[in-house]
């Protein structure tokens, strides 16, 4: 049976380190990189910009493309699967974790304002995930 690993990524260095770690620790696993476009609020810069776009799904896909291209560069010789979702990042990741054997997540990402107002996604995932979680710094 093949191991399936979920690696949530945003555009932070920490999420890139998480992917590098997952590739090293799980050399034979099926790796899925998930980018969650956060729900818009008065305190979320990028998500608010996406929410104002004419075609929300298209805007989210375009934003995710940059992250997925970077993930493919990091994975270089490995095949990875990519997926984009919309919603509260911690809730989406925890819900998706049910389909995987492990989650490898960066310790933090986004701007300081995102961490202060939105909360620590890694901490919420660690506390609520139904599967083992590795938090990478």
UniProtKB/TrEMBL annotation:
Q: Which Pfam families match?
A: Usp
Q: What are the transmembrane regions?
A: none
Q: Where is the UspA domain?
A: 1-137
Task: State the SUPFAM superfamilies in the record.
Answer: Adenine nucleotide alpha hydrolases-like
Recorded hits in InterPro entries, A to Z, give: Rossmann-like_a/b/a_fold, Universal_stress_UspA, UspA
What family classification does the UniProt entry report for this protein? Belongs to the universal stress protein A family.
Q: What is this protein called?
A: Universal stress protein
